[in-house]
Design brief:
Layout: E1 2-5, H1 12-31, E2 36-42, E3 47-48, H2 60-71, E4 76-82, E5 85-92, E6 95-100, H3 104-117, H4 130-133
Antiparallel strand pairs: 1-6, 2-3, 2-4, 4-5, 5-6
Helix pairs in contact: 1-3
Length: about 140
């Protein structure tokens, strides 16, 4: 597991999207075009999992709850799969941790990239990423 403590003036929504995007992007280097699947999101009060064969998406309700917890410094945990890789990520305040089952190199790459992106005023997040993790509006 790799951990990053950072100082960021980003709002919680941008911070979350940057973290998810770069986790996806760096994992794609080894897993290719495999789907980025959020398997579980856990907060102190609630656990979100996909219903049946549906994908877990960051609906407005889920996003509002996550953002409120991030703003209050409460821990948020994600379980993500992409191809053969399984990722656990946690965000609590300005501390982000990530662990991967298959390749520790991915952990290093995610942390290294987020060290840069989370300090920017406008972090790089591909415009096509948000629709893949949120429902179509």
């Amino acid at each position: 597991m790799k951990t990053l403590e950072f100082d960021s003036r980003l709002d919680s929504r941008k911070k979350l999207m940057a973290i998810l995007f770069w986790t996806n992007r760096k994992t794609a280097r080894t897993e290719g075009c495999a789907p980025f699947l959020i398997k579980k999101i856990s907060t102190e009060e609630k656990t979100y999992t996909p219903e049946g064969k549906k994908l877990l998406k960051l609906t407005d309700e889920i996003m509002d709850h996550i953002i409120e917890d991030i703003d209050n410094g409460k821990p948020i945990e994600f379980e993500i799969s992409m191809g053969k890789e399984f990722i656990r990520a946690q965000l609590e305040g300005n501390i982000f941790s990530v662990s991967t089952e298959k390749s520790g190199e991915i952990e290093d790459e995610i942390i290294e990239k987020l060290e840069t992106e989370l300090t920017k005023k406008y972090p790089s997040v591909c415009s096509s990423f948000k629709p893949r993790v949120t429902p179509k509006s």
